[in-house]
Design a protein that fits this description.
This protein is α+β, with helices and mostly antiparallel strands. The chain folds into 2 domains: 155 residues, Roll (Thiol Ester Dehydrase, Chain A); 126 residues, no CATH class. Helix content is 16%, strand content 34%. The chain has 6 helices and 14 strands. Strands 1, 2, 3, 4, 5 and 6 form a 6-stranded antiparallel β-sheet that branches. Strands 10-11-12-14-13 form a 5-stranded mixed barrel. The longest helix is centred in the N-terminal third of the chain and has 12 residues. The two termini are 42 Å apart.
Length: 327
């Protein structure tokens, strides 16, 4: 999503890129302060929501999960006083040029030290980059990346990079309601590309070979998914992989109705599938109407080619379960 060709003349064609480029390096937030110190209650809520029972997150030597880094900086509905005029001016400039929609695209975090209950959180943020105009399936716009340095009691604890796309929505073509027609299929277009990085490249190489690979810790043997650079049970950076058998059951699911997106055709079911190997994966449940998916339904892995470049792992309801669901 970060790439893309130059957009045709459209919204924002009067906005010189130099105007946006001038914001790079300017502050996005100055002397921001977390509204609460690091505390056990928030850690507990986070771990319960994530299903993370690592013993490091409880007990007398408790630390916060590293992925909570941004959580301590969030300002809630009332926001933060430290947000800069420069960042507001950049967003206003993009709004004025017609890029009035926004979507978060990705984030990156680097961890320097653990956060512990009682730590007082402060932060500063900078507008790190503003891209040239890009065309995506959502529309034409500019990617804005901010970098936040998070400190605990004045000591650098980590860095959080956050990227958004400010865009003018693409015009939709075709007639609504033409599900299954050639015109509808043309309007749907290509699926978004997965973000592949050094931490998950092996997973996608496995998918290309029709293998669903699960990481296994080289020290404690715990299996994990999605792929991570270190074990969330013992912290070891050593690991190998095991290939999933493909058998699983629907642990939970949602049915997506809204918002509509050019690459998808709602409603459809998205399942949290528990594999026989004990890990869970989010993917589509196919082979059964979306309103017949049920918790506990047995499913089997298959690979779906969605276009000439991309295949994805999906899970097909087994025949017996599908017939029961349709009865």
């Amino acid at each position: 999503m970060r790439g893309g060709e130059r957009a045709p003349e459209a919204a924002g064609d009067t906005l010189a890129y130099a105007e946006l480029k001038a914001f790079e390096g300017r502050a996005a937030a100055v002397a921001g302060r977390g509204k609460d110190p690091v505390n056990a209650s928030m850690i507990r809520h986070w771990c319960e929501a994530m299903g993370d029972a690592h013993p490091a997150y409880t007990g007398p030597d408790q630390v916060a999960p590293p992925t909570m880094l941004q959580a301590w900086t969030m300002g809630g509905l009332s926001g933060h006083e430290g947000r800069s005029d420069a960042y507001d001016a950049l967003l206003a400039l993009l709004d004025g040029a017609g890029y009035t929609s926004v979507v978060a695209t990705d984030c990156e975090q680097e961890y320097v030290r653990a956060l512990r209950p009682g730590d007082s959180i402060t932060f500063d943020a900078v507008i790190e980059s503003v891209s040239e105009r890009k065309t995506t399936k959502l529309g034409t716009g500019h990617f804005v990346t901010t970098r936040m340095d998070v400190r605990a009691d004045g000591e650098l604890a980590g860095t959080h990079r956050f990227r958004i796309l400010k865009y003018a929505p693409a015009k939709k073509h075709g007639v609504a309601g033409e599900r299954g027609s050639a015109g509808r299929r043309e309007a749907v277009g290509r699926r978004p590309r997965p973000v592949i990085n050094r931490d998950n490249a092996g997973f996608w190489e496995g998918v290309a070979a029709h293998r669903l690979l699960i990481q296994r810790c080289g020290d404690c043997g715990v299996r994990r998914f999605p792929w991570l650079p270190g074990c969330n049970a013992c912290g070891s950076a050593e690991w190998d992989t095991v290939e999933a058998s493909g058998e699983g059951t629907v642990y939970s699911y949602v049915v997506m109705h809204h918002p509509p997106f050019p690459a998808f055709d709602p409603p459809y079911a998205v399942g949290l599938v528990e594999l026989a190997e004990g890990v869970r994966i989010v993917s589509n449940v196919v082979g059964v109407p979306y309103d017949k998916v049920r918790i506990g339904m047995p499913v089997r892995l298959e690979f779906l080619r969605v276009d000439e470049e991309l295949e994805l792992p999906v899970f097909r309801a087994l025949a017996d379960a599908a017939s029961e669901g349709g009865s």
